[in-house]
Each structure stands twice: as C-alpha cells, then as structure tokens.
Amino acid sequence: MSYTCSVFRAQFFKIPADKGMPSSVTIVTLIRKRLSSKGFSQIRYFSVINPRKAPENEQESAIEPPIHEDIFKSGPKLGSFRVGDSTFYTLIENFAKTGDFISLEKVFSQMKRERRVFIERNFILVFKAYGKAKKPMKALDLFDKMWVEYQCRPSVRSFNSVINVVIQEGLFNKALEFYSSIVLHEKQVSPNVLTYNLILKVLCRLDLIDRAIQIFREMPLKKCTPDVFTYCTLMDGLCKEDRINEAVCLLDEMQVEGCFPNAATFNVLINGLCKKGDLSRASKVVDNMFLKGCVPNEVTYNTLIHGLCLKGKLDKAVTLLDRMVKAKCVPNDITYSTIINGLVKQGRASDAASMSISLEERGLPANHYVYSTLISGLFKEGKPEKAMNLWKQMINKGFKPNTVVYSTLIDGLCREMKPDEAMDVLEEMKKIGCEANAFIYSSLMKGFFKKGDTDKALEIWKEAESQNCGQNEVCYSVIIHGLCNNGKVKEATIFWENMLSKGYKLDVVLYTSLIHGLCNNGCLEESLKLFNQMICEGSGIQPDVVTYNILFDCLCKNGFVSRAIDLLNCMIDQGCDPDLVTCNIFLKMLKDGMDNVEDGSEFLEQLVVRLHKRKRVVGATKIIEVMIGKYFMPKESTWEIVIQDVCKPKRIRAAIDRCWNDLYVQ
C-alpha cells in the first residue's frame, strides 16, 4: 500500500496504519458519513502537493484539488462500473448540495481522466445546483457537454431540469431557443408532459397564447396526454389575455377528456372572472366546483373577497369572510388586508380600524400594510387625530414600523400642513436605522411648499440629493410644481432645464405645472410656446383637459377669445373632451359680454353636435349633463341624437346584463 493511501486512511478515516485498508463499500460509507459531518472540510484540504499535512489557511487550500488523485485506484470492473465510482457520485452529490462548483469541475475532470462512467443523475444534481445559484448559462453549457465530453446521453429528464433553470431566471426567449434546438431540430430527446407544461408556461408569459394553443393541440399527436397542470397553465394564459370564454370552454373540454380539475384549476377561472368584474359567472364556477367534489380553499375565498372589494361590495365581502371561517378555511393576512383596503377606498377608514381591532382580538394582529393603509385612509378622510391615536397604539403594542409606515405618517402630517412635525418623525425614523426614500422627501417638499416655505423645501431637496433620492421624475415634478405655485417661475425653469439636461422623462403633469406657473405670472406667450413644444416635438405626450383649461382661463382673462376658440377646436380634434370646468370658463366669458355672437345654450348645443359627429358619445353626454345643471334645456334634435347614441342595441344589452349580474350577486 502506498504511503499516500496510508496517510489518507490515517487522516480521513482515523484508522491506524497496521489495521489494513477497508473495503470499497466501507470507504463509500465512511466518506458519506464524513461529508455530512463537520469534518467535510478535511477531504477538501487533503493536498496533492504535500499529502503529509493539511493547508494552514484558506488561500492555500483554494488552489488545491478537492481530493487526492491517488485515493481511488483503478480497481476491477463490476459490469459497466468500477470500484470507486459510487464514491465519486457521492462527492458530486455533496458538492452540488453545497454549491461548490470549483470542486465539482475538478471531480468531473478526474472522472474523465480515469475514464469513469458518468450517469445522468450526476448531471441532474448539478443542473439543480446551477438553478439554485442562478447560473442558467452554466446549466446550458453542461448540457451540451454531457454527450460530447462525458459520454452520457441526456434524456428528457436532463432537458427538463435545464429548461426549468432557464425559465426560473426569466430567460423565456432563451428557453424557447433551447427547446427548438434540442427537441424540434436535433431531436435529441422526446418531450413528455412536463416538457410541454414548461413550454406552455413560457409561451403564456411571452403573450404568445395562440402558439401555446397550437402546441397544446399537437400533444395528442405526439402521444402525450395533457394533465391538470397543462390545462391550468393554458387557462391562466387565456384569462390574462381576457379570453375568459375560451378558458371556460377548456374547463369543459378537460372533463370530457377524463382529466378532472382540482381546486387550482377552478381558482384560475375564478380569479380571471373576478378581475374582469364578472362576479355572477365567478359564483357559477364556485357552484360547479362543489358539484365536481372540489372544496373551495383559502385561495378561492381570497380571490372572491378581492373581487367583491373591487366592485365595492364590502358588506358581501365580510359575509363571505364569515362563510370562509365556518368552512374551516383559515383567513390570512391577505384576506384581512384586502377587506381593510376595500373599506378605506370607500372612505370607511374608521370601520376598517374597528375591524382591525376585532381581528387582533381573534389573534390576527395587523401587519405593516394594514397600518399604513389605515393611517393613510384616516388622514385622507380628514381625521388626523384618529390617525395619530392609531400610531400611538401601534407603538405602545411594541410594533416596529418600517419605512412604508413611516412614509405614510409623514405624508399625512404634510397633508395637514404640519411639515415641521413630519420632520421630527423623519429624525426619529433615522435614529432607529430606517432610511428615507424619494416618497418621504417628496411629501416633505409638498408640505413646505403648501406652507409657503420654499427655502425649507429647497433644503429638503438638497438633503434628498445627498441621499441619492432626489434625482428622479417624482421629486423634480414636486419641486417644479411647488416653485410655480409659490410664484418662483424663474427658479422652476432652472430645475426644468436641469431635468432636461440629465435626460429625465417628462410627462403631462410636469408640462402642466410649468404652464400653470407661467400663466399665473403673466407669461402667456411663454406658456403657449411650451404647450406647442409639448405637442410638436414628437415626445408622445398629449395635453389633458387640465392643461387646456389652464390655457383657456388665461386666454379668456386676457381678452384673447378667438385664440381660446381656436385652442378649443384643437382640443376636440386631438380627442380630448371638454369637462365642466371648460364649459364654465366659456360660459363666464359669454356672460361677461366678451362675445355677443351666441349665448351659453347655443355654445353648449354646438359642442354636443361636434362631439356627436366624432362619435364621442361619453363627451356629448357630459355636456348634456352640464346643460341640465345650468338649466339650459337642449333642443329636441340634440336630445334625439344623444339618445340614439346612448341607446344602441349593444349598449342596451350590456346595461341589462349588468343589472342581472347585480341582482344575481345580491
């Protein structure tokens, strides 16, 4: 026995030199035991350079091979395997589990030199390790080497492992390319149902739903029967493309084909219908679910509750919550957060706070999302005292707020014109290690601008810049809008030019803010120039009704009636409908006698006719509402064209369907 093996035996297995070398089975067993214990590092540190001692530091060990090249001597063959093969497989398994890819490569190289037999399981373990380490390209490279370098023919199991790694990293186009190369062109592997499920998932993620359906229809021709996951994937893709009817037909088809849906299948349809607002059909799917022996689970109830909240049916959502508890489905944070958020959106923040207290009594304390939603809702409803009381209760209970909750409180205080108190909250937040974000700084700037303290707002801007939070479109928009409202248009223009020079994306809010500031400061021509710049430079930004109303008001106040009318014509041509503010501006101008050609009623009648000719039914209807509100009775001809537009057969049918849906849900 060589000196090297004696040293290995003595150091690794702790076997005295005079006891003889253990059998190969014993070696494998001992190596497995040592690899899973704290002594795993001993085999890595066994040096080929100097087998007498282990390295003294990590830097030295990093350049050494994981195992000694003389450990596994060429032994007699046992079929297609040799003594020591299983030991290599054990090393691969353990190195893959720990993500030691350097050692894995060395083991593979040594096996290749010794002409060892590679088995597919070795590669699948490494593919999974590459997936865990987020190295999809390494997995693809190893797959290419399997047969060429290591003489191990890959099967569909290896292919599925690799493509799954690629999909998990979001490389959908790469996954399709890999599938086309290996399966369709080279035909190295025959796809199974898992392969098709993965490909359908990729196609649905890429919004290639028609191609997904085509491949789905080809599956039986390839003697591959779709399973419940296949149908689920395709139905989910159809629902996201708003092709609900096709998804429902697919549910019927899978049952005809003998593939029985599970709760996840029904949940896909229920989710799609609830997002579309079709609660009537969603409830029918639930009934079908019961008929098929599927019991609704937490996901089903959460989806239905979310759908009811979206439709504003909060009372029904609470009733469904009670049914959920009676069905022994445990509500979670998502369930309660959805209902509380729905109540807040309906302006019932106090009711939401009461529900939060009752939930806490049931052993479900509020989380960060619930607290931020409640505090924000109470501030927006003009109940700052209740918001502050909720904050104090939260702190007294030992709950530690995060950046989101702090930002909600700061924003609320700034809405209440208390930016100085908000600054105190910011300092408290910094002391506990929470970092401020762009939303917090923008809220503070808004607060000080509303208070008229532009100097303090600019100080906040500088602090935001020092924290790398000020250089974004939101903060620029806030500071430009605030400076314009405080009459500092020159300073706002400097920030505007600075923003342009840094390549930030402009939007209609920014343009409107600066146009408003220029108009308020008597710079009408400059505001019109900026307006023309917005619509003529090919930026894709279109002015909205707010932008037009600012210019209408400025033009009319300065006596430029004809220019205001021309701009109104431009507005209608650009597809922007007038609103109540637009009408009031022109009606005031007519009332003041600045234009004696037509009175207010005739002006609004003409607007209705012009919008009708352009088939803008909603806009025309809104003008009729304005006329009625101003006690201007439309002519019979005007009534006739609007009623004909509103009462088209399709719209009547849709209105009837909505009524039936409301009746069914109630």
Automatic annotation (TrEMBL):
UniProt xrefs under PANTHER family: ATPASE EXPRESSION PROTEIN 3 (PTHR47932), OS10G0484300 PROTEIN (PTHR47932:SF2)
Cited InterPro entries: PPR_rpt, TPR-like_helical_dom_sf
PPR repeat start and end residues: 192-226, 227-261, 262-296, 297-331, 332-366, 367-401, 402-436, 437-471, 472-506, 507-541, 544-578
NCBIfam families attached to this UniProt entry: PPR (TIGR00756)
Species name: Lactuca sativa (Garden lettuce)
Stored PROSITE patterns: PPR
Alphabetical UniProt keywords: Repeat
Source species, domain of life: Eukaryota
Family recorded in the similarity comment: Belongs to the PPR family. P subfamily.
Presence of the UniProt keyword Ribonucleoprotein in the record: no
Protein name per Swiss-Prot or TrEMBL: Pentacotripeptide-repeat region of PRORP domain-containing protein
Repeat found in the keyword field: yes
